[in-house]
Amino acid sequence: MKFDSQRPIYLQLLEDFKIKISTGEWKAGEKIDSVRNLAKIYEVNPNTVQKALAELERDGLSESKRTAGRFVTEDTKLISKLENKTFEKIADDFIEGAKNLNLEKDEALEQLREYWEWKMIDIKNLTMVYGGRAVLDNLDLKLEEGQIIGLLGENGSGKTTLLRILAGLERNYKGDVKIKGENPGGLTNSLISYQPDHLAIDDNLKIVEIVDLYRKFYEDFQSNKFYDLLEKFDISKDLKMKECSKGMRDKVQIALTLSRKAKIYLLDEPISGVDPKSRKIVIDTIIDNFDYQGILLISTHLISAVENILDRAIFLDKGKIIINQSADEIREDKGMTIEEYFVEVM
Fold first, then answer.
1. Does the pLDDT at position 165 exceed 90?
2. Is residue 24 over pLDDT 60?
3. Cα–Cα distance measured from residue 190 to residue 236, given in angstroms and rounded to the nearest whole number
4. Average pLDDT score, the chain
5. What CA–CA distance (Å, rounded) separates 84 from 71?
6. Phi, psi angles (nearest 5°) of residue 13
7. pLDDT value at 110 more than 70
8. pLDDT confidence bin for 199, thresholds 50/70/90
9. How far is it, in rounded angstroms, from Cα 17 to Cα 87?
10. Which one has a higher pLDDT value, 292 or 286?
11. Where are the alpha helices (DSSP H) in the chain?
């Protein structure tokens, strides 16, 4: 979020919080993220977040519950009024801008209504069948930007299939999958940086040659950033892929994925082949290079290795979402680590 230097930051935060409520990103009765996490997402002082949240509560749009945290109001009439007010303001701005595109008012409003419903990732009734078995079973999921999300489950739970669908690599599914209002593939390829569990590339290529390929295929690939990451991993750019261990290959893949300027990062088991000593370096690299204006979806069964960086945890079992909760909510309400909770419910 870019802040206007002419207005107090807490008021701009307050406005954004109200937009989240009016668009349904923050649902009625839902627990609001912690001050610490919001400060990290917006890159502002926690005191500024606290002030904005206090104003939100004064406006009746949230309420604090002792020991439980802060929640969005359950007053649907108040939320409905906010929705109308927010839509009217955005519509006025949108219609004014549409004049430059020679759009009629009704046409501009119709486009705005469609955009209003878009989420970064919006999945409805997704089913994928392999060999008569539902790998994904009538799955619903909505995700907004500003989160590192753990897609957690045992092998065969459907994690890889879901990521491949989002990456536009699987088309033979039933249901509706939208990324910013578009079907996966084609127009969404510029939004997504996908790291598969195995990089399908010629083992005889040197790392420096792979970088050249990425620069040709992806306009948003930042080679300088890649080489900085490679240096952190202490890997020579002149090595051939066949000369790299499984852990080194995984690190190269992570560096390639994070060196794209994407909105959505999909990492499939990124640390499965990395030794425990190197995992901290990999995790720190992910944190340091994630843009909180986007989404990072990381699939893994090594929950303890990633749970400290997660903003949200999704438990997947036999193609169904069993749990979809914020990490703070699990820790605070359940009094457990994410791994402990996973073991209990799965």
1. yes
2. yes
3. 28
4. 86
5. 21
6. -65, -45
7. no
8. confident
9. 14
10. 286
11. 9-22, 35-42, 46-58, 76-98, 105-117, 159-166, 207-217, 223-232, 246-258, 276-289, 303-306, 327-334, 338-345
Q: Decide if pLDDT at 8 tops 80.
A: yes
Backbone angles phi, psi at 164, to 5 degrees: -65, -35
In the chain, the amino acid numbered 19 is I
Q: Which of the four pLDDT bands, split at 50, 70 and 90, describes residue 100?
A: low
Tokens of 181: 């209002």
pLDDT recorded at residue 268:
93
Q: For strands 192-195 and 264-268, give the pairing.
A: parallel
| Beta-strand relationship, 264-268 and 133-143 | unpaired
Amino acid at 57: E
Burial classification of residue 322, based on how many CB atoms lie within 10 Å of its CB (0-12 exposed, 13-18 middle, 19 or more buried): middle
Q: Output the CA angle 320-307-67, nearest 5 degrees.
A: 90
Q: Tell me the two tokens of residue 17.
A: 């919080």
Location of structure tokens 């749009």: 61
314 three-class SS: strand
Residue 88 has which token pair? 């009217």
Picking from 263, 326, 323, the residue whose alpha carbon sits closest to that of residue 26 is 326
pLDDT of residue 75: 85
